[in-house]
Structure formats: C-alpha cells, structure tokens
Design a protein that fits this description.
The chain has 79 residues and is mostly helical. The chain has 4 helices and no strands. It has helices spanning 2-19, 28-38, 45-53, 59-78.
Length: 79
C-alpha cells in the first residue's frame, strides 16, 4: 500500500509541475490518483481544489492554488 501511495503522490507532483507552465488536461488517471489518496485523508478539500486548479487558465491563480493543494495533499496522506 505504501508503494501505491508513493506512486499516486508522484502522479500528483507530476501534474502540479506541469501546471506551473500551462493548464493541465484533467484525465481519468489523475482523478483516480486523487480519489485513491483521498481515502487516507480526513478532509477532501485539497483533492477537490487540486482537481479544479490544474485546469485554471490564470497562471498566478493556478500556480498558487495547485501548490497549496499539493502541499496539503502531501500533509494529509503522510501525517
């Protein structure tokens, strides 16, 4: 389970890094990774925020929101 969690977090990090340069197309694989990780967290908001933010057109809003959501996801599933 730990390895699956690490791989799902890597997928989140990959999408977050891509989102720094441009909006990211929301695909089923990323949706699955977020849903999988949400099972380990008490709150759902970081996952929902991340999903919405990666496709945001405004680069400043996208960058700030994706970064905050990614950090919150990491804290939620590791803590």
């Amino acid at each position: 389970m730990s390895e699956l969690r690490s791989k799902a977090l890597a997928a989140i990090d990959e999408a977050a890094n891509k989102a720094l340069n441009a909006p990211v197309e929301r695909q089923m694989a990323l949706r699955f990774a977020l849903a999988f990780l949400a099972n380990f967290a008490e709150e759902r908001w970081p996952f929902d925020n991340f999903w919405r933010a990666i496709a945001t057109q405004d680069p400043k809003v996208r960058s700030a929101t994706v970064t905050a959501a990614r950090n919150a996801i990491h804290r939620a599933v590791k803590g």
